[in-house]
């Protein structure tokens, strides 16, 4: 018996069990329709607004920075694995790469991409003439 | 890497290091774009000067990734010089508009992105490996996404940037899939190995599939038919200097890569490949010229005209070894000069609040801004290929390269298309030199309102003064006329540089 | 046994799914995801060729690393553009961007 046919039998069992469970619960399960059945918390707590919250834009920014600097790690790992073999030439290459990453970091830092939350709000207030 | 390698790569190294410096300058040097602008010009001038250093080492292959030879250096010099002129033409155009809040941004990042894009194009022009081809292409593309969407107060720019991003991403995925298949078939990432596999007898089905997939990616970047649909939208919505950059550097670098890929291997005259090229060339010429006929906006006209010009360049590419490289090199110089002149003139007119785009707003331009009108007219005549302009010499060389081979059919199509194109180029010229309508002459200064701006804000004084964009128009006009009358020295220079092809 | 063919079929399928997603979906983020799927299909191909090929140097894997880096840069720029559009229009459906016609 090849491993493919055993996989097929396994799949068939999975399907049979899932379908059987659904059919049986549908036939045997009890149904009721009271006033509170449809709401999320049947205990009586009323939901306050949708669960689909809008995240502040700042989170997207952090996500972007994560993506960018996370990929820098890919190159670092690749170099670290071969650090001895690649020698000083490899070290110089990764050093240039790190300096460029640092320049990028300095740029976004200076642009205020990391000033979010309370600090940005405070600056906004100060700019518009409120003292905190 | 040896010191000779560094010398050969010095233009690229300078551009890469310089771009980092420009980025830091844009963040740390105040709220004006001037320091970044100046730094970018210095870096581009240094990179141009370094071409001379690299020339002492050419031809030299650095690893299997890039090969620096005469043709590559010529293309890189052309790219850096064009980027220099585009930066000049951008300065007033990209300056913060009146009454618009800059949000504390200096806008200096624009010049950083311009530098990165020209670095990507120069890598593309030197690539001999799929890795450098892809990296150069993406460095160019990713910078262009941001450049197209650079002016955040305009939604249409961001839309066009996103559309270009999605299409460029999908097409480079096709290109990469083709590269992966070629890697499987030949076990190497060198472009020359793929070309060798294609020329030898009956190529593997994998090799053919890889070529087909790569054609999608390359055709998109060139905006050749049937991958041209993005062109009018992006040209229209991008800031005008960025449009100039897309029309010239972005397409020219890919054309140079194609020549370096096809011409030396003899692939351009083997089997069915020339026929595919010929079909794309013919379709691009006809589609570009016929669609341009019914456009009423000058940037869209230039978009369709650029599709047609890619068709002409493709004819030169299949002209075979010994002819392709010199012809393409000369044509690129002529086309770059004329396009830059046209777009720089549009940028010079569009400073201030109004984008000067609809053809009607050009009516009577010759009496209001005679210098700019003359420059724009000259660029149009050169694009049309009328005698005594660089465009005529370029087309003549393509014609001469084509008629020798079986390409005489294409050469005839080229002549037919040039005739069609004269109509819409001359229409622009005739509109500029026809008298302005009464209402507008009465309004006098109301140039911006004529272009459709309803903001009513007073136009900045600088919009009428002689600016760097006007200087670019003059430079382009001088090049167009000089090459049209004395093409000999440049042709000799190109012949000596491209002797290896 | 799972061989090279399986990887190739999977990569081709991923590529097609990504392409269809990029063409059919109307949400800008979903279109972007489609393009990313296409790029990752290529990565799968390259790594599989390295694993099953006879090459000594892992060329395909190092190329894949570059593709990952470039894809990340593309995503970052795309998200930035989507954000600027979103701030103006408060949704991310591409058919509201009236110039996207293909």
Describe what you observe in this structure.
The complex is a heterotrimer of chains A (132), B (501) and C (102). Chain A is 67% helix and 0% strand. Chain A is mainly alpha-helical and 132 residues long. Chain A folds into two domains: 1-30; 58-127. With 501 residues, chain B is mostly helical. Chain B is 72% helix and 1% strand. A two-stranded antiparallel ribbon of chain B has the order 1-2. The two termini of chain B are 26 Å apart. Chain C has helices at residues 4-24, 28-52, 59-89. With 102 residues, chain C is mostly helical. The chains are: A mainly alpha (132), B mainly alpha (501), C mainly alpha (102). The A-C interface holds A 57, 60, 63-64, 67-68, 70-71, 74-75, 78 and C 62, 65, 68-69, 72-73, 75-76, 79-80, 83, 87.
Write the layout of secondary structure elements.
The complex is a heterotrimer of chains A (132), B (501) and C (102).
Chain A: H1 3-28, H2 57-81, H3 83-110, H4 118-127
Helix pairs in contact in A: 2-3
Chain B: H1 3-8, H2 10-28, H3 34-55, E1 60-62, E2 66-68, H4 70-94, H5 109-126, H6 130-148, H7 155-186, H8 191-199, H9 205-222, H10 230-237, H11 240-262, H12 273-293, H13 298-317, H14 324-349, H15 365-368, H16 370-384, H17 390-404, H18 408-432, H19 438-443, H20 447-450, H21 468-485, H22 488-497
Antiparallel strand pairs in B: 1-2
Helix pairs in contact in B: 2-3, 2-5, 3-4, 3-5, 4-5, 4-11, 4-14, 4-21, 5-6, 5-11, 6-7, 6-11, 7-9, 7-10, 10-11, 10-13, 11-13, 11-14, 12-13, 12-18, 13-14, 13-17, 13-18, 14-16, 14-17, 14-21, 16-18, 16-21, 17-18, 17-21
Chain C: H1 4-24, H2 28-52, H3 59-89
Helix pairs in contact in C: 1-2, 2-3
Q: What attributes does this structure have?
A:
heterotrimer; A: 132 residues; mainly alpha; 2 domains; 4 helices; flat; C: 102 residues; Helix Hairpins; 3 helices; elongated
Name the shape of chain A in a single word: flat
Tally of DSSP helical segments of chain A: 4
The termini of chain C sit apart by 42 Å
Please, what is the oligomeric state? heterotrimer
| Overall radius of gyration of chain C | 17 Å
**Which CATH C-level class of chain C is it?**
Mainly Alpha
In short:
The complex is a heterotrimer of chains A (132), B (501) and C (102). Chain B is an all-alpha fold and 501 residues long. Chain B contains 22 helices and 2 strands.
